[in-house]
Amino acid sequence: MLEQHHFYQQLVKRYAANQATSEELEVFFHLLEQGKLDAALEMYMNEAAGLTEAPPYAEEPSEAVITPLYTKRKLLYRVAAAAVILILAGSAWWFMNRINEPAHPGELAVQQDILPGVSGATLTLEDGSVMQLDTAARTLQVTQGETSLLAGKGTLTYRGAPEAGNLRYNVLTTHKGEQYRITLSDGTKILADAATSLRFPVAFTGRERVVEINGHAWFEVAENARQPFYVKKGNQLVQVLGTSFDMLAYDNEKNMAVTLVTGRVQVNNGKAVCRLAPGQQAIAAKGAEGITLIKEADIEAATAWINGKMVFRNADIATIMRAAERWYNIEVEVQGNLTGRSFYFAVNRTAPLSELLHFLEIYHIKYKLDTVTRKLILMQ
Amino acid sequence: MIQAALHNEKELLAQVVEGKEEAFAMFYHYYYPAVSAFVQQFLKSPQLSEDLSQEVFTRIWQNRHRLAEVQSFRAYLFVVARNQAITALRTISRHELAAGEILRHYHLPPPSTDDLLLTQEYMRFLRNTLDSLPERTRQIFRLCREEGRSYDEVAALLGISRNAVKNHMVQAMKVLKTSVEKELGIPLSVFLAVFSAGSENF
């Protein structure tokens, strides 16, 4: 029987020899991170470097010489912390494949519960024609000028070279209970949350790239210093310098929030300007002049949605319920006074509404749900 | 293939300990390709491997007093290279950015019957570990391969001072070239060919 350390040795060997499959690589890095491969690596490296035959020193090497590079540096911890942030925030994109199908397709007919949102959107082309986008495997292809767009399997991709002349605009709209991902012609990736609209040129010509948003989206902006990228919401402007960030800008939310994960962005609301470093969040409250900078933002909570989770920390019930309305396509009415209370909770976005209702029960909030009218009433 | 030591290594080592750059340049040029190839087996990225190899030599130069007790320069060199590579891999495993740099240079083998050679036990261990991975690890993993990241960020993360030695060595070689030509009256290349007999690096 193969023992564990033999498995480790074989894995290291296959990694070094470029024989490892992507699954093996995944395991390799995981075990490496846990420090489980150190012995196997050292052994393999000794062999590869021919270090078995002669000790490098006349006598026993002093420990200081052999081990200094093994000492854990503080850097590692900082790196680990940074990695956690990235882990939690950065990996949005590919995960969304899983939300493409409703969690329980077979249960659609029997509605005791309300199903979560799915991948879907409406695309309005320059000429006013409208396309419904969904998760169907069939692919739609449309050519506009020099740019072609491909839509299928929950993703919309633009491909083409910039062309002279006026910009052609498309508008992608997700309704409540929908999200959609899109790759713009410059390679920028956007995941649009529910009830969001994005207006963007089919191809980016001219000096800058401008995308207008109303709603909530995750951006992974393709770097191009010569063509700065802006995200606009009314008179609020986010200038992007090659980066990934979350932008929450709904009409019905009091605050607009920009949460930066990597790179640099600058938020400008016409009256104030705020530069963000990774891990920071800018909040522009409606009607307020200034922008509030949160130096240590709760990145995990702000970006959990892209990893398929709804995370609320110290949130008021109204904020939570607005998010529920958007994702579950429901109307929520709060009867009685729940203001002033703050809540902590997390549910998977793939879970049906009942999971979220369970959270209400934990907090002793009574509710009534009508699955036909999709109305949820909270009572104190 | 293990390289033979430089034929006058003992004397050269003594000179390095005394701080003679030209002596260290001998070691550097003689062993660099082997170290670089060794490191690249584990770091995959040619650029990362090159810079880490430079770093190995920089460290040895900076700690040259230690060479006084070293019997085999080659063994010492590869211990440092090994430790550096393991440290780098560990850092890399904890950092999406750096892992991406490796993964982008990792050429996955084509699906082949090769896998049939793996024992069932191997596959079982693999599967078990795979199943225990948090989903997010896998997402990152996929993302890593897709995202181009700044190499400089990765180098900074690993504490690599890019091309430090290279510049240093260029300087050292200039000094050497001048003194050889002045004192011996022969071109450097000829001198080196004689001096490091057996080496194919010049």
UniProtKB/TrEMBL annotation, chain A:
Domain FecR protein per the UniProt entry, residue ranges: 171-266
UniProt GO MF annotations: sigma factor antagonist activity
Domain named Protein FecR C-terminal: residues: 309-369
Keywords, comma-separated and alphabetical: Membrane, Transmembrane, Transmembrane helix
Pfam families registered for this protein in UniProt: FecR, FecR_C
The organism's place on the tree of life at top rank: Bacteria
InterPro entries: FecR, FecR_C, Ferrdict_sens_TM
Segments passing through the bilayer: 75-96
PANTHER family assigned: PERIPLASMIC SIGNAL SENSOR AND SIGMA FACTOR ACTIVATOR FECR-RELATED, PROTEIN FECR
Annotated protein name in UniProt: FecR family protein
From TrEMBL, chain B:
UniProt xrefs under SUPFAM superfamilies: Sigma2 domain of RNA polymerase sigma factors, Sigma3 and sigma4 domains of RNA polymerase sigma factors
Record carries keyword Ribosomal protein: no
Domain (RNA polymerase sigma-70 region): residue spans on this chain: 27-94
InterPro entries the record matches: RNA_pol_sigma-70-like, RNA_pol_sigma-70_dom, RNA_pol_sigma70_bacteroid, RNA_pol_sigma70_r2, RNA_pol_sigma70_r4_t2, RNA_pol_sigma_r2, RNA_pol_sigma_r3/r4-like, WH-like_DNA-bd_sf
Highest rank taxon of the organism: Bacteria
Record key words, sorted: DNA-directed RNA polymerase, Sigma factor, Transcription, Transcription regulation
Keyword Lipid biosynthesis among UniProt keywords: no
Molecular function terms, GO-annotated: DNA binding; sigma factor activity
Cellular-component GO terms for this entry: DNA-directed RNA polymerase complex
Example GO BP: DNA-templated transcription initiation
Residue ranges annotated for the RNA polymerase sigma factor 70 region 4 type domain, each copy included: 126-174
Family to which the UniProt record says this protein belongs: Belongs to the sigma-70 factor family. ECF subfamily.
The protein, known as: DNA-directed RNA polymerase sigma-70 factor
Organism in which the protein naturally occurs: Filimonas zeae
Taxonomic path: Bacteria, Pseudomonadati, Bacteroidota, Chitinophagia, Chitinophagales
